[in-house]
Protein 1
Amino acid sequence: MITSRDNQFVRQVRRLLSNSGARRAEGLFVIEGARLCADAAQSGVTIRTLLYTPEAEAVYASQLSALKAACGDVYEITSALSRAISDTSTPQGVFCICELLDNRSGLDKIVNIKTSKMGYLALENIQDPSNMGAVIRTAEAFGLDGLLLSDGCCDVYNPKVLRGSMGGVFRLQLLFVGSMTVAVERLKAAGIDCRACVVDRDAVPLPKAGLTKECICVIGNEGNGLRPETAAACSGRITIPMAGRAESLNAAMAAGIVMWEMARTTELSFME
């Protein structure tokens, strides 16, 4: 049993949980919690190391049995260590060190968007991990093919993103496209319709936008919205009609409403 905070795996978990630069440099990330770790294994994530407490084995026996069979190194740790390294206030005592997913494939994946099931949503500079996790979870629920993420978006392997996405990070196609302005220009050159989601009474109201799965809607930063050059590069502007005195919606809420409209107009079978 591991009892020391100076153990290499304990230090690695703490480093990967807290530092996105370390995650990129090492090509690894940490998942915490029995259910989320089991979900990762079922989704095909490569798990290198499992750390768990004896108390966790008593409570999560079935999940840990599957995890032990799926990963390489397996170690017991003390409950005190679990509390010391956890990113949550009530740790379950289960941690997996995993390899980053191979999802940095860029725009080439969506050139043939007409063959997609539902389509894509684009996010520019979404920095709040809770928002990012919620958008990923909602995108999976509505059957989107994937999300386009610009430079400036928060790390999708942030522990809050992983928890908020409920495992969606493991299954949804996440395409890292660099500059969203450049990405939109490339997509338009390939004949793909891109719509800027803005707070503007002169923009087309969302219910009248006529969205299809061949159309990519672009959602902007929580505080500032889309960069002006990105909005200008899009082929059209759409807005969510609002009553009352609210000036705008939370980015995750706005994305959810847009995705609902995409699903509704695409007439997916799960909505029948």
Protein 2
Amino acid sequence: MSERERICLVIPYYEAGDDLTTTLGSVRLRADDLIVVVDDGSRRLPARDVAPREAGRTPVELVELERHGGITAALRAGASRAPEEFGLLGRLDCGDTCRPDRFDKQRRYLEVHPSVVLVGSWVDFVAPDGSFLYRLEQPAGPESVRRRMRINCAVTHPAAVFRRSIYQQVGGYPAGYPAAEDFALFMRLLERGEGANIPEALVRCRTGDGGISESRRRQQLASRCRILIEHFEARPVAVYGLLRAVVQMVTPRRWSTCAHRVRTMIDGGG
């Protein structure tokens, strides 16, 4: 296996404490891979207090940002630390875990399918106590992934591995898409190649008791609408994706007003 298949795994951290230990304990990478933990300006429970120098046999590099800049800034900082000879970037979040064979399977998939630039997997979502909630079965093949991307993000962010060269070509994680930085990046990656998901639950994502906040819902809605408009203009499938986003994010009594506003944006070309 060539150097180009070496993985740099980026894990953003913000006052997560022992969640980082749990996450790193699940990771199985090669000795010549790299894990980058990015502390996004923690004042309480800084990552330096819990981050080991190695996870198994894989070195761990700690990046400490001076101020809390949000996940996009943390991810950009982490990805920038990947050595030039590394061909792949991977993702995982604090508190999430993965199967021991996750990265072997994704690395092999990308090696066998050179046209694929982004590969994820199915994901099991669990409660804070670890109890199973549901399985998200994202579409597997490139064509079904492309169709899903016209409506919503087809690859779950913490399960993603993508080609570093393509990431650099598209300029990395784009700013200005709060709560949808993954969707924005993946849209750009898939303009340069194909996406896929391994139809196995290789990652377990922990979700909080309260779910997403109302302010974050509004941010996500605005970002998703903007992404779909930028990439699909006024195609009917994009209209469906926009309206579906609104249905998911707003209360029923605000549906008519929001739908009208979205349709006006599309008809007006902006």
